Amino acid sequence: MHDQNSLQAIISLEGRTALVTGAGSGIGKASAATLAAAGATVYCGDLLEETAQSTAAEIRSLGGKAVGCGLDISDRAQVNAFVERAIAETGRLDIACNIAGMMSESKVLDITEGDLDQMLQVNLKGALFVSQAAGKFMSENGGGSIINMASTAVLAPSPDIAVYAMTKAALVQMTKTMSVEVGKYGVRVNTIAPGFVPTKMTSRYYTAPDGTEDAAMKEMVLKPMAKFAPLRRVGTPDDIAHAVLYLASDLSSFVTGQLLAPNGGVAGVS
Ligand SMILES: NC(=O)c1ccc[n+]([C@@H]2O[C@H](COP(=O)([O-])OP(=O)(O)OC[C@H]3O[C@@H](n4cnc5c(N)ncnc54)[C@H](O)[C@@H]3O)[C@@H](O)[C@H]2O)c1
């Protein structure tokens, strides 16, 4: 039976090292901040280096431990250098969060080869490169937790984001397969499939032609989504970050190969 101290100890990431890709914005930023608040030293990687640096600086200003790095996950050499830096500087690697991703709009009949290649390169190969580099170290050093970011699009097909959904579905399969390969080394691999969260990525649905966010359009898009969601709201980056914390911490030490879907109940609605 737990008392308050033992429960806090299970959630705590004190002394652990975490990597977060896509840490410059949205769900990645919230996840990096949450892992740091739980005590981890967080390596924040993002294609836009200044955003990764600013996330890390914000975390440090709140008393956390974080390092910001420029990182293109589609480049295996950069991924290896990112993972090796975290290990060299802290001597360990416990948590790897594949949160960086990109979205494109297309129907299956209209997918171009260029779009397919680019989306595979970032959403699938990028996450694979991180999982390989982190997974190798974790397998040889007592275990760890790898967390991949999929989407509700893998549970409820959406007609306009075909390539995106295909790459995210592949990520779910990569997770399941890897989990049965590395479980014996104490490495857990899980996927999160978030529901709709207003972020830079999803702001495309309410961005005016001049590139600014249109408040009226935003309300028009979000209101019906919230109305039809069983929990009557869309998500926040923190909603997803809390799922990341669960999968990163020892709270989920018996959980691997799973798909966790914080989505307000929407994927269950037909
Ligand atoms: N927001 C949602 O509703 C939602 C829903 C389901 C899944 N997701 C997934 O959650 C993840 C985070 O999305 P978000 O909504 O926070 O988006 P976001 O656009 O706010 O953040 C994505 C971050 O990834 C970075 N990035 C893109 N390509 C990269 C690359 N090659 N290397 C390194 N960094 C790169 C971007 O610079 C950006 O900072 C994505 O994988 C997305 O598919 C989001």
List the helices and strands and how they pair.
Elements: H1 4-11, E1 17-21, H2 26-37, E2 41-46, H3 49-61, E3 65-70, H4 76-90, E4 95-98, H5 113-140, E5 144-149, H6 162-182, E6 187-192, H7 215-228, H8 237-248, E7 259-260
Parallel strand pairs: 1-2, 1-4, 2-3, 4-5, 5-6, 6-7
Helix pairs in contact: 2-3, 2-8, 4-5, 5-6
Nicotinamide-adenine-dinucleotide binds next to helix 2 and helix 5.
What this model shows, in words?
The chain is an alpha/beta fold. The chain has two domains: 4-197 and 236-265, NAD(P)-binding Rossmann-like Domain (Rossmann fold), CATH 3.40.50.720; 198-234, no CATH class. The protein has a seven-stranded parallel β-sheet with strand order 3-2-1-4-5-6-7, sandwiched between helices. The protein has helices at 4-11, 26-37, 49-61, 76-90, 113-140, 162-182, 215-228, 237-248, and strands spanning 17-21, 41-46, 65-70, 95-98, 144-149, 187-192, 259-260. Helix 2 runs parallel beside helix 3. The structure holds nicotinamide-adenine-dinucleotide (NAD).
* Helical content (DSSP H or I, runs of 4+): 40-55%
The bound ligands are: nicotinamide-adenine-dinucleotide
Mean pLDDT, as a whole number? 96
Tell me which CATH architecture of the largest domain applies here: 3-Layer(aba) Sandwich
Q: Helix and strand string, N-terminal first?
A: HEHEHEHEHEHEHHE
The CATH superfamily name of the largest domain is: NAD(P)-binding Rossmann-like Domain
- Per DSSP E runs of 2 or more residues, the count of β-strands stands at 7
